[in-house]
Predict the structure.
Amino acid sequence: MDPMPAATELAPTRGLPWTKLAIAIAVLAAVGVALWQFGPSIQAWFSQALEWIQGLGPWGPIIFIVLYILNTVLFLPGSILTLGAGIIFGVFAGAFYVVIGATIGANLAFLIGRYIARDRVARLIAGNRKFAAIDRAIAQEGWKIVGLIRLSPAFPFNVLNYMLGLTRVSFTDNIIGTFGIVPGTFMYVYIGSLFGSLATVMSDETQTLSTEQQTAQWIVRIVGLIATIAVTVYVTKIARKALNEVVEDEMPEAQPNPPMISSEP
């Protein structure tokens, strides 16, 4: 495969976080309109999926976590599963199951990158001076830098799991730092829970509520969504800024071909 493209380097933060917030809300609104427009067919598909997973009883969360672990190790996008967790399990339980699955999967990939696929991963990131700088920072700060990387999407999540296996971070510090995914996870699960609420509204389960009560419920949900996205964007911006400062401090000492990408574990 070709070396890691320049897109994986830490790009400077551009634009206001509120612009991203507006885009996220617009996308959610568009999806909501589409869901209302094509409600019957979409509702039928969701109902079948929900019935199957929920019908598993106590095995449902376990199967979901196993699927998320496999999804992470196999480089598959996790956003669909994360949204689905909100639909199936609700906000807090869904976020909890996603974090468990993502953390286990991320650290399995970390071990694979360190001990099994080291040569292949090393070729992917050879010459990436910014990642070399991050490695030097990790050697000093450990889980703190890993946490900042998780908060700031400097590298794709599934790729980063393998890349961290080549750094000097300990396995324990990597586990702790992986919990930096919590804010972003909570946001996606919250959005998924709103999709689940839309499916409920389209069913007969809300007929006992008055129009005013349903409106009040949705006002609370939308305000909660806006607040969740705003906090996530703000935290991400702070993390990116802090990580960029760390990289800038370490860049003069980083070498184009650092020892961390050698074939020796």
